Structures are given as C-alpha cells and as structure tokens.
Amino acid sequence: MPTSRMLRRATPWLMLAPSLLVLVPFFVLPIAIMFRNSLARDNPATGMLMPEITVANYARILGDWFYAQIFLNSLAASFGVALLTLLIGYPFAYYLARWAGRRWLPVLMWVVYMPILVSVITRVFGWIVITADSGILNGLLLGAGILREPVRILFDISGMTIGMVHRYLPLMILPLANSIAKIDPRVLAASTSLGASGRDTFLRVVLPLSLPGVVAGFQLVTAVVLSDYVLPTLMGSTRFRILAPAVFDEAIGSVRWALAASLAMVMLAIVAVTMVALNLAMRRLAPWARGL
Amino acid sequence: MAVGEAGLDLEIAGISKRFGSVRALQDCSLTVRRGEHMALLGPSGCGKSTLLNIIAGLDDPDAGELRIRGAPVADVPPNRRNIGVVFQSYALFPHLTLRENVAYGLKVRREPPRVAEERATEMIALLKLDGLEHRYPNELSGGQQQRAAIARALAIRPVIVLLDEALSALDKNLREEMQIELSLLLRRLGVTTILVTHDQREAFTIGDRIALMHAGRIVQVGTTEEVYGHPASSFVLDFLGSASALPGRVEPGSPPIASTAFGLGFELTAAHRAGLAGPVRLYLRAEDVTLSREPTAVHRASPARVELSTFLGALKRQVIELGGHQVLVDAAAGHHGPRFAQGDAVYLSFRPESCFVLPEGE
Hints:
The structure holds two protein chains of two kinds.
Chain A lengths: L1 H37 L2 E3 L4 E3 L5 H8 L1 H34 L2 H17 L2 H12 L4 H8 L13 H25 L3 H9 L4 H12 L1 H16 L3 H6 L7 H11 L3 H29 L7
Antiparallel strand pairs in A: 1-2
Chain B lengths: L7 E12 L2 E12 L3 E5 L6 H9 L6 E6 L2 E2 L10 E4 L11 H11 L4 H14 L15 H14 L4 E5 L7 H18 L2 E6 L2 H7 L2 E6 L2 E7 H6 L4 H6 L3 E9 L5 E3 L5 E3 L10 E8 L4 E3 L11 E8 L3 E8 L2 E8 L12 E5 L6 E4 L3
Parallel strand pairs in B: 3-8, 3-9, 6-7, 7-8
Antiparallel strand pairs in B: 1-2, 1-4, 4-5, 9-10, 11-12, 11-14, 12-13, 14-20, 15-19, 16-17, 16-19, 17-18
C-alpha cells in the first residue's frame, strides 16, 4: 500500500519532529544569528551593529594577548576542574559500581544527584559562608592557630575551583560509575586467577575498561566549565578571567555585541575541538571500545 | 596434619559452605590425582560451581580443608594458587587482543617478555588460533573465544585447570567437536583438570572420573563406567542416562522375587543389592529394554501399550505406557526388530540384572 509505505518512511521524521521543533528555532537559529553578528562591526558611538561582513573581530581576539590569556585560562580551568573531579570522583564511582550493593546504591546515587536538586546560587552562598576571609574555614584555621591571617579562597582561582568541582562532580561520577559497573566481575576473577595482584588488576583491567567513562566524564565537565558564567562571577577573581564572563562583559559592559559574538563563536569552536580531540584520543587509547 | 599423599594434585576434605540459609556445599571430600581429569557433574544449583570457586580461591569455605600438591591453601590468595580457570562466559579481557589475553598471566607474573611471547605463540598454535592474534575478543567467534580462554588458562602452566561449564555456550555440533578436541589436548598435555558441567556427555568425554553432585553433596565418585554401571542412588540413576522408574515389591526368599502390580516379575540375582524387602522402585534404562509382541520371561501378563514412537536419528525412542507409568525404550535406528505402531500391545523384555532395584524412598 503506498500510504502505509509513505507513513513508514515518514515515521523517523515524525519521531524527530518534537526535538527539531525545539532545536531549530531555539538553538540552530540563534547560533546562526550569532555567527552573522560576529562578522558585523560594532559602532562604539551608538552601541549598534553595523551590518557589514568583516573578520576584523576574529583578527582582533585571535591577535590580542588579552584574549589569548582568557582562552588559555578557560582551557586550564576546564582541564583542571575535569582532572580534579576525575580524581575525587573515581574512587567514589568505583565504590558505587562495585561494592555499594543493593542497599546502599540508591542512597549513594541520591547523594550524587542531590546537589543538582539545589539551585547553584544557593550552593554558592553556602560556599561563600565557608570560604570567605571571615568564613568558617578561615575561622577554624585561625582559631586553631594554624594561620595568622586568613588565606584567600573566595574570589580567587581556588574558590572558583572548589565551587566548580562541587557543581560538576555528578557529571563525572555518573558516566564513570556506569562504565565501571559494566565490567564483568568474571573478567576481574580471571585476572586474579591468572596471577594478578589487586593493583595489577586495577591498573591493567579496571582502569583501561573504564576509559570510555573517563573520557565521557571529561567531555561533559570540560564543556560545562568552558561555558560556566555563575561560578567565575560569584566565586572567581577578575585577575583570572575566563570565557563566559568575558563574553558577558564585552556584550553588556562594553556594549560590543559583534566582538562578544565572535568570542562566543571561538568558545564554541574550542568546545567542539576539545570534544573531537578527546574522541580521537579515545579511539587511539581504546580501539577495542568501538564495538561496545 | 600429615603431609598430603604423593601424586595428589588436589585434596578436598569436609568442605562446607553456606550462603545465608542456603547450604551450598555440605561436607564435600574429593581427591584428584596428578594428570587426572575429574568431572564435577550435577544439575544446576547442586553446588559444583561453588566448589570450583573455592578451589580457585575466589570463594572461601566455611569449613574443611583444601590442599594443592599436599600444601594447605587456606591462606594462599587466588592469584598465588597457580590455577588456570576457564570461565563459562570466557571472561576474556575485552580491551586486549587475543595475543595479549594469552600473555596476560605471564606478564602479571613478571615473566621475561621473551618467555611470555614464546609461550603465547606456542599456546596460540596449540589451540589453532594462528592468524587471529591481533583481534579483539569481540572480533572472534564463540568457538574462537573459547579456545582463547583455554589458551590463556594453559599459558601460565597451571597446577590445575578448572573448566566451569566451559563449553556450554557453544552450539551443539561445535560443542561436541570441542569436547573431543579438548579431551585429546588435555590428555596430551597431562595437565590435571577439573571440569564442572551439567552435561553428562561432556563429563564422560573429558572426565576420567566423575564426581556426581546433588544438593551440595558429592554423592558418588568413580570412573565413567563405575558411576553409569553401578549408580549409588536413585539420583544418579535419574541423572545419568534415561531410566524409567516403576513401583514394585520384593518378596524375600531364596532367591527373592521382585514384582510389580502390572505383570513384571523376576528373581533377584547376585548383581542386586542384598537384603531388599517390601516396597521398592525398579529402574529400567531405556537402552536395556526391548519390546516383543509375546509375553517374555520378565513380563508375562497385562501388556503395555505403545504411546509414542519417535525417531531421533541414531536412536528410535518409544514411550510405553505400563500400569499408568511411562517407560522409555530406545533401540538403534538400524535395528531390524519388529516395528511397533502407536497403540500396539507389547511386552517388555530385559535382563533382570540390568534392572536397578532400590528401596522405596532412597
């Protein structure tokens, strides 16, 4: 029947329709407009865009050390935070996946999810109370005589890092726990029976087999850190400028929308390149994972 | 305690294990001689895999003692027991190539790389895996993965190889092929082997001796001929081969007479257990029974009826109804006896000594 065949052909498109309806007007189109704007020129007198087509903004941000510093800071922050969440998250994910058992798994999963349920602003205020110069942490260290004067945590790289690690830890733990849980316990028993110590089994079997989770977690965390605006603004330092607040400052502070747009496009490119680079690294490091 | 007997690779004495309220193993004892192939045979849930895990050190017994080559191994961790395990699911390392899988045990034992490479090459050739060295497990067929798992376990030159339902994931034809090939290979290498299986054919093909397990106990140990020819209990009779059970009685006398309410009767011989009296069960193996249209020496009255006649290739299997009970009768397919059709009245014929007579309830 022709109608039923047409329907069958249309089915995938019908199923995609709801997401396309959201993605095209609210994601693809804005990015296209942003791209167009990045090629325009700012009129400093009016704060309006001049509708020409020029790569002057790109030339400026890619040629100026001021912006290069922002890109490098952003990459350093994203990799640093991803690395910290990996180091903190791995043991937890390992325990979650291999030892937690039926009774503790839901509780621990809830512990992982819980921060997501609380507004990031609320959490930042919590951290401010703890990390401020006059906060709980400094108060304890001063009171115990360990410090003579408060150490700077809030409004510095360390404060921003603490906030980001706390905020993005679940994004690292969940893919990690998932990939560790997928490892067949018999494979670990096989390693042991072949003479491997616990350390050998971990380094030669568990760690390589959890690599897909490591890469997935790394991708998620680097992507969200690169686009994080709240934490650098509320807990970070203006001496360590990173991308998202810089885009905001250019657009709202300096009213340079075209320049801000080109910064945003470069940021998008950096995220894309980072993701592809991690995927390529994954293919090289774990060729066996393609079929999984 | 005395040093273990010479020539014994494995001694298990009084091993028990509980999981919560489940008694997985109860007082299991077994010895395996050097180079011997022992099959632990039993239905699923009989405890055979638990026993295997305990031998491998992957599980600890609650009670009992385990010795490998005379030395107690209670305090020896599994990675120092030098036991090669071939798992049912193969448990190959998915991130390593076939060659790396085979060499893994040698690497973690810090063998010189040259030795590891040579041994891996040797094992790969032995299991006919040449040309596949650089493939990952998911690029190998089931049979190839099976061989790789065996190669990996043998590469460490283990004292004992444990095969945990190692062939059960293969297709029937491939499985039977592998049973013979593996049996020949293990014999050639002379490596002490313990095979865990629920498949009688597999146990009999590979095993020199069989340890039958039931409900956490080792119920009989013997050569294949011994356990088949002299089953120690109704469980062994039921589990090995195809035996049909019929209720009967034994009248003491000299000789005692076994009979059923439906026309079977014969004198017990020296082959039967002495001192039988009262209600019994008569077990007839399908291959020991033939059919006839006329009354026979053991079946003189109330003929049975052919319920079903099936052709199984090498065998012709008939299902006979006798006094409300089913009796299986197998005949070679090429057998030139009389042909029976469904509904025919028939009489059973068998040698009295081929009928196992056990007291009711045993």
